[in-house]
Amino acid sequence: MSKFVVTAANEAQRAAWLGGTLPEVEKVRPGLWSIPVPIPINPLRYVLVYALELPDGVAIVDAGWNTDEAYDALVAGLAVAGYAITDVRAVLVTHIHPDHYGLAGRVREVSGAWIALHPADARLLRDRYDDDYVETLVEQEKALLVRSGVPQTVLDTLAGASMMIRHMVTMARPDRLVEDGDRLDLRGWDLRAVWTPGHSPGHLCFLSESRRVLFSGDHVLAKITPMVAVHPQSTPNPLADYLEALVAVRKFEVDEVLPAHEYRFKELAERVDYVIGHHEDRLEEIAEVIGAHDGITCWDIATRLTWSRPWESIQPFMRRAANNETLAHLAWLEARGRVRRTPGEANLWHSMQS
Ligand SMILES: [Zn+2]
Ligand SMILES: [Zn+2]
């Protein structure tokens, strides 16, 4: 498919992303600020926290990773907007990934802000971040990788690949559970929650109809297609959830999409169409690999797909992501009756035609 390129809403912000620097703290429009907050050891480099002015302080959309560097950047960014961290009244978290949720608890501690999260992500908190439960999650991940056909030699490295980052996330419980269609109680803002599962089961976008903007979190980004993967905490068919949730936001009439990474952009519907097309291409590519290699494992499919770099140079954590993303596409094809699996210690995949 031909590549669709979005129009950046602010050229300087796009240039900063492409140039590997941190964009400016910026007034997006009256009463609305964009604050880049650095995230460690991650090619995404920063999360864009949005500060929404209220009569008695600010609400923020996402918080950043729980590091001192991130906290300081958030404090400094709010100061540019004329606020102190103690002025934060609400933290609206798009989803539980550490670059969005990590700092929420620390912000609440100093400001007394309430934290909002969708119940489907709130449910995952304990197993993900509580030391008494996290071992179970690692075991489940390992079992999933065995069923995918991951070789024994790399199994342990892959299964524990995300544990090193856990200490950067605090276990804050949300104060308010926000469901699809809920109006957020923020004076001066007509903000409505839109449940957009897929990237995480409880991912939320926030829509302001009057200001014609969508806070899209990781659901729709300017250049990257967010990871949609099967893992122990995902729904059985996360790609179906995701594609449906893309269609759900496509209809919104907005002038600007305010994502959590990279840069702001204008064309929502066109970008959604492109991302859907990207997954359709991927589904076809996977179906073709199975057609050519009957009885192949998920892992062996993943190693044969085109990635942004050669398979040999992909880090263990990203290889696991690649495997689990492939599995999400397999689950989608299976639900549509296009492929089937023979269960075993490792599942083997077949075309329905064969
Ligand atoms: Zn995320
Ligand atoms: Zn993110």
Ligand kinds: zinc ion
Q: Which class do the helix and strand fractions yield?
A: alpha/beta
What's the alpha carbon Rg, rounded to whole Å? 20 Å
Annotation field: number of helices: 12
Name the assembly state.
single chain
Question: What order do the strands of the largest sheet run in, or round the barrel if closed?
Answer: 1-2-3-4-5-6-7
Estimate the mean pLDDT confidence.
Answer: 93
Secondary-structure element sequence?
Answer: HEEEEHEHHEHHHHEEEEHEHHHEE
Main β-sheet, in a few words?
A: 7 strands, mixed
Characterization of the model:
It is built from twelve helices and 13 strands. By secondary structure, the chain is α/β, with parallel strands linked by helices. The strands form three sheets. A seven-stranded mixed β-sheet has the order 1-2-3-4-5-6-7. Strand 4, helix 2 (68-80) and strand 5 form a beta-alpha-beta unit. The radius of gyration is 20 Å and the shape is globular. The two termini are 28 Å apart. The mean pLDDT is 93. One zinc ion is lined by residues 95, 97, 199, 218.
Fold blueprint:
Elements: H1 11-19, E1 26-29, E2 32-38, E3 46-54, E4 57-61, H2 68-80, E5 88-92, H3 98-101, H4 104-111, E6 114-117, H5 119-122, H6 125-129, H7 131-148, H8 152-159, E7 176-177, E8 191-195, E9 204-208, E10 213-217, H9 238-250, E11 256-259, H10 268-292, H11 298-304, H12 316-335, E12 339-342, E13 348-351
Parallel strand pairs: 4-5, 5-6, 6-7, 10-11
Antiparallel strand pairs: 1-2, 2-3, 3-4, 8-9, 9-10, 12-13
One zinc ion binds at residues 95, 97, 199, 218.
